[in-house]
């Protein structure tokens, strides 16, 4: 049984008791505990169920590599699934739930999967759920969805706050263990700015647990002295509870700081995402111990030898009364000795190496611990808890020599440097045969903007494990990093390294399968990936079925695809794969290491960008008036535009109909300020616009306006609008509301990169002006009543502009129309917009004038057959498709898109072209509906011969009207074609002229 | 995330301040060009593993377009220069040739 020891525990404060719950049950722990250590201290060893077989799972590790102990934390807006118990610091009131079990953790129905596990081999889902196709939707998918996933996604809105933070430094040290601290001091001594990150709450990493003498000090005291020294320096910043999540191009690093996960309710953000630029990065990320593949290595109670040592030393928790140790290297002897000196029983150390270990092994023997060399585990006995271990010869096939009762197993298959951050940005690895591990290849580090290396691995992360070598390596890394960013050790105050003497160790001997000749029965119970239930037999099957690439084998078996991303399983898995393929391990290689190192919260990624801060809102000068007067908003780009202004319980449709009727019969008012306004100025402005627009702009007279089309070099229509010539050198180009920035950028791109010798300036002045359209047969009456003179057609015809005072405000009036009505668009400085709006409303009140919104605007333009960018166009439509040939100059030798519009597909007579559509029954055609031809295509789908691009109810005509693109449409006037409806039915419509109302355009010319 | 230096305003900034505009030094083909020339101009782009000349715009900065010579494999930036030119400056080409022995501009086009 696991329990809290009476003495020790370097991280816990026994005077502070913290109460918490696990699956609703009350427990208590000590300040300084992690959730994992507290659960273990309460003998709660069963913490979850595995993904596929729902096998009982307990703790394996003590840090972020833990694959099993995933829990849901908190409730409501603070609930978060898949949190590792090993990295969650305990606090009073913590509430955790185990995952992936039903109906309860102790009794799980899904565990029946384990009984039939021979039917769930690698690739089971791929092989099984294929046919018949119809079963997917109703049978396979619901079942797989029900059983898939670990935690449940939260349903409530996240109650916490998050933020982003930018930081710059010369040297970034990732990892606050003895290597990171040593490297940081060396770099700081040289005079570099240093930022040190440590993912846990505590500095020092493994050294305080593993021990050793550094100069006059024990490792723990030495680390404490280093921390105190660094903390006092002005050129060093230290952040604990902050993980280096990823290393990216040119020295960019994401740091994930967990500010209040250990103390919920603390004011301020919960997580902070640091966006760091560092000239040099030192990855002092340590190493992770590997499990050993033996049958039953997943039974709760089987743990990494180092983790067992951590629980005893850091938190005074014994994982079991009798812990058997199994190893292929010397380090696990430290765990045996730690247990022994804590007064716990170690029935045996099984050393798979025939020759056994070095000095530590001698110490263990001297302590009276039984050491068996050349021995391994045949199988672990027990279900929800280890009860005994059957031992065998490592060299054999698993014949049981002896069964040793125990309640915990400490395993060590050797150590793998944490090379993730080294590798993220392209750092390469080399296989170290002697230590049986991949380690960073210093000659092939990630390189930066200058082509020079910017990442240095230090300490255990660089493959150095002896304390003396590790510290020397880290010191050197610190000096090198500082030197690379221009700080010389000689000019600084570099200190000599203290003396360190390491115990002589016997070399590791790789054990990829225990026993070496294990039969299929044992291999099918030897787990590689604990979270995803991938066993040795699965990887071997994948190899046999031809998944020889490590990347393929990973995806076929799901090895290393769980939330721990293979931190424990990766090397063991690829060694098994290499064995199956009869290839050397380095030839098989590793899967790609991708950020983040461990999962980071979605909240941290979003930072402040949520709710009102997600995106800036653009407001016209009259925005507040619209809001106060009941506007129904429609988002258009970053703007909000009034869709309509419903009155007294009107529906939106009723409001739109009222607004249209008022404009067509009297006068209405539109806030047109969002329309893009770009000034193009210079001696070559006309020539430039001739290239941008399909029609001729250079011939436009000052004082006049002209409608124009803009195409991309591919020939497709990208924007339209009215151009006004202000003077010989100056044009104002109106763009669509959403197009202003895009079109301005388009202009600048061509000016700067193709016609850079042309003398033209452009300026986007969209927000400089408020623009108000006064529209309808009585529009002239309104503006004349406000003092605008000479507004009649003789002096101020359609498509002219003029400067006038309106209500005493200097204005530029454009006589242009998007509704087919008499229309004056009045532009005034933005600051005068609301004043003009108010005066116009007063002046128009006797005529019943009212504001109208974008929907009325759209219906009226459709009644007139005017196209709308984004409705009639979708990036594949050319002006010729829309019957706009009249707006394409035949005289000009060139314009953007001209050559493309001559390509064979563009001139194909079978392109779909614009027509008007009227349903026979007067109904409104469904948006985006397809016109259906005769027969079916090669896929058995109905043949389509066109589609609806705009469709509305026209209150003016009292019927549905639509525009659409139809095969040979303009030649088929009067023909009736059918459109599909969502319910599978069809509706018939007649092809007509797209101009439904006032075909001769008399109304706008009055 | 790259760091680029805008040759127009001199600011060194993160990639998020910039917008990449694809291959640099394209020759525009207009109305009288052959189908083949026009198609090449419109669609055919180099995709080298190594030295690449490309267009960037300092979109969240001075707004100017410029060109960068960048290694697509290592992301090394050999240099940036104004867009108002039809070919990379000789000094830059020399610098690249020094860093990538055997490279010539012709070898990628």
Keywords:
heterodimer, A: 1006 residues, alpha+beta, Ubiquitin-like (UB roll), FAD/NAD(P)-binding domain, seven-stranded mixed sheet, six-stranded mixed sheet, 27% strand, elongated, B: 109 residues, Folate-binding fold, four-stranded antiparallel sheet, two-stranded antiparallel sheet, 2 helices, 28% strand, globular
Walk me through this protein's architecture.
Chain A has 1006 residues and is an alpha+beta fold. Chain A has 6 domains: 3-114, 2Fe-2S iron-sulphur cluster binding domain, sarcosine oxidase, alpha subunit, N-terminal domain (Ubiquitin-like (UB roll), Roll); 162-287 and 417-484, FAD/NAD(P)-binding domain (3-Layer(bba) Sandwich); 291-412, FAD/NAD(P)-binding domain (3-Layer(bba) Sandwich); 511-610; 676-767, Alpha-Beta Plaits, CATH 3.30.70.1400; 909-1004, Elongation Factor Tu (Ef-tu), domain 3 (Beta Barrel). Chain A is built from 25 helices and 51 strands. In chain A, strands 9, 10, 13, 14, 15, 16 and 30 form a 7-stranded mixed beta sheet that branches. Chain A is elongated. Chain B has helices at residues 35-43, 90-99, and strands at residues 3-5, 12-14, 19-23, 51-57, 65-71, 77-82. With 109 residues, chain B is an alpha+beta fold. The longest helix of chain B is centred in the last third of the chain and has 10 residues, at 90-99. Helix content of chain B is 17%, strand content 28%. Chain B has a single domain, classed as Folate-binding superfamily (Folate-binding fold). Chain B has 2 helices and 6 strands, in the order E-E-E-H-E-E-E-H. Chains A and B meet through helix 22 of A and helix 1 of B.
């Amino acid at each position: 049984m696991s329990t809290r020891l009476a003495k020790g525990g370097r991280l816990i404060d026994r005077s502070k008791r913290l109460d918490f719950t696990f699956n609703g049950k009350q427990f208590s722990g000590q300040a300084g505990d992690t959730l994992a250590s507290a659960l273990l201290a309460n003998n709660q060893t069963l913490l979850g169920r595995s993904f596929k077989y729902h096998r009982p799972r307990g703790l394996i590790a003590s840090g972020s590599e833990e694959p099993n102990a995933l829990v849901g934390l908190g409730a409501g807006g603070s609930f978060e699934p898949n949190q590792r118990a090993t990295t969650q610091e305990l606090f009073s009131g913590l509430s955790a739930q185990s995952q992936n079990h039903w109906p309860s953790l102790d009794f799980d129905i899904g565990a029946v999967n384990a009984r039939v596990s021979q039917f769930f081999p690698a690739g089971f889902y791929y092989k099984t759920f294929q046919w018949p196709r119809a079963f997917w939707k109703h049978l396979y998918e619901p079942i797989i969805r029900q059983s898939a996933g670990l935690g449940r996604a939260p349903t409530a809105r996240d109650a916490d706050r998050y933020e982003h933070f930018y930081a710059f430094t010369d040297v970034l040290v990732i990892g606050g263990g003895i290597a990171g601290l040593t490297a940081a001091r060396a770099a700081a001594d040289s005079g570099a700015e240093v930022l040190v990150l440590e993912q846990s709450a505590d500095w020092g990493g493994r050294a305080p647990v593993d021990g050793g003498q550094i100069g006059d000090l024990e490792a723990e005291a030495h680390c404490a002295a280093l921390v105190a020294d660094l903390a006092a320096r002005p050129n060093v910043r230290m952040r604990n509870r902050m993980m280096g999540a990823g290393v990216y191009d040119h020295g960019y690093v994401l740091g994930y700081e967990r500010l209040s996960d250990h103390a919920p309710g603390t004011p301020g953000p919960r997580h902070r995402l640091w966006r760091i630029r560092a000239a040099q990065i030192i990855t002092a990320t340590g190493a992770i111990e590997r499990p050993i593949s033996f049958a039953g290595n997943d039974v709760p109670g089987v743990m990494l030898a180092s983790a067992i040592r951590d629980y005893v030393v850091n938190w005074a928790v014994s994982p079991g009364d009798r812990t058997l140790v199994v190893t292929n290297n010397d380090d696990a002897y430290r765990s045996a000795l730690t247990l022994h000196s804590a007064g716990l029983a170690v029935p045996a150390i099984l050393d798979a190496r025939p020759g056994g270990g070095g000095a530590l092994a001698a110490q263990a023997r001297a302590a009276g611990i039984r050491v068996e060399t050349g021995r391994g585990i045949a199988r672990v006995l027990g279900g929800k808890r280890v009860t005994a271990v059957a031992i065998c010869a490592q060299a054999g096939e698993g014949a049981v020599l002896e069964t040793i009762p125990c309640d915990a197993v400490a395993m060590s298959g050797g150590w793998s440097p944490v090379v993730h951050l080294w590798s993220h940005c392209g750092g390469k690895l080399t296989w170290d045969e002697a230590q049986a591990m991949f380690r960073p290849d210093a000659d092939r580090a990630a390189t930066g903007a200058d082509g020079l290396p910017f990442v240095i691995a230090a300490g255990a992360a660089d493959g150095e494990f002896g304390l003396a070598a590790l510290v020397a390596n880290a010191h050197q890394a610190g000096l090198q990093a500082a030197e690379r960013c221009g700080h010389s050790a000689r000019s600084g105050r570099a200190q000599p390294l203290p003396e360190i003497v390491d115990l002589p160790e016997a070399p590791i001997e790789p054990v990829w399968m225990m026993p070496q000749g294990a039969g299929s029965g044992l291999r099918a119970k030897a787990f590689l990936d604990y979270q995803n239930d991938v066993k040795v037999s699965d990887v071997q099957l994948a190899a046999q079925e031809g998944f020889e690439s490590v990347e393929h084998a990973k995806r076929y078996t799901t090895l290393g695809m769980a939330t721990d991303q293979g931190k424990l399983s990766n090397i063991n898995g690829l060694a098994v794969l290499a064995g199956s393929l009869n290839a050397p391990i380095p030839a098989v290689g590793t899967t790609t290491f991708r950020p983040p190192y461990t999962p980071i919260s979605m909240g941290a990624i979003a930072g402040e960008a949520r709710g009102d801060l997600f995106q800036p809102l653009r407001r016209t000068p009259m925005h507040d008036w619209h809001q106060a007067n009941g506007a129904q908003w429609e988002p258009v780009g970053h703007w909000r535009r009034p869709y309509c202004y419903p009155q007294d319980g009107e529906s939106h449709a009723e409001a739109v109909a009222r607004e249209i009727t008022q404009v067509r019969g009297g006068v209405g008012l539109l806030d047109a300020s969002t329309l893009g306004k770009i000034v193009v100025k210079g001696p070559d402005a006309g020539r430039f616009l001739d290239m941008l627009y399909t029609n001729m702009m250079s011939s436009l007279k000052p004082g006049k306006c002209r409608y124009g089309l803009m195409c991309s070099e591919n020939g497709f229509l990208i924007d339209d609008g009215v151009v006004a010539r202000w003077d010989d050198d100056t044009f104002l180009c109106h763009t669509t509301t959403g197009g202003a920035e895009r079109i301005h950028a388009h202009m600048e791109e061509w000016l700067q990169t193709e016609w850079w010798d042309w003398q033209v300036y452009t300026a986007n002045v969209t927000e400089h002006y408020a623009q108000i359209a006064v529209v309808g047969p009585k529009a002239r009456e309104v503006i004349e009543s406000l003092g605008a003179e000479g507004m009649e057609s003789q002096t101020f015809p359609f498509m002219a502009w003029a400067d006038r005072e309106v209500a005493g405000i200097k204005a530029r009036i454009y006589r242009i129309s998007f509704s087919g009505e008499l229309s004056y668009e009045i532009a005034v400085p933005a600051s005068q917009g609301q004043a003009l709006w108010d005066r116009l409303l007063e002046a128009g009140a006797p005529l019943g004038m009212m504001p109208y919104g974008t929907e009325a605007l759209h219906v009226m333009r459709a009644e007139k057959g005017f196209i709308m960018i984004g409705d009639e166009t979708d990036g594949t439509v050319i002006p010729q498709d829309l019957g706009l040939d009249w707006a394409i100059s035949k005289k000009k030798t060139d314009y953007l898109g001209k050559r493309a519009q001559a390509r064979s597909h563009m001139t194909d007579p079978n392109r779909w072209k614009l027509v008007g559509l009227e349903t026979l029954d007067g109904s409104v055609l469904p948006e985006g509906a397809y016109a259906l031809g005769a027969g079916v295509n090669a896929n058995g789908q109905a043949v389509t011969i066109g589609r609806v691009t705009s469709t509305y109810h026209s209150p003016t005509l009292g019927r549905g009207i639509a525009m659409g693109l139809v095969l040979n449409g303009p030649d088929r006037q009067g023909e009736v074609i059918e459109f599909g409806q969502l319910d599978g039915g069809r509706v018939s419509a007649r092809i007509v002229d797209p101009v439904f109302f006032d075909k001769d355009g008399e109304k706008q010319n009055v | 995330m790259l760091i680029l230096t805008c040759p127009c305003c001199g600011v060194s900034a993160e990639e998020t301040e910039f917008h990449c505009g694809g291959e640099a030094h394209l020759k525009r083909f207009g109305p009288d060009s052959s189908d083949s020339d026009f198609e090449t101009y419109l669609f055919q782009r180099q995709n080298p593993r190594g030295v690449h000349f490309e267009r960037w715009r300092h979109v969240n900065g001075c707004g100017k377009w410029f060109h960068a010579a960048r290694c697509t494999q290592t992301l090394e930036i050999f240099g940036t220069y104004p867009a108002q030119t039809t070919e990379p400056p000789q000094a830059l080409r020399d610098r690249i040739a020094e860093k990538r022995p055997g490279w010539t501009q012709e070898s990628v086009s």
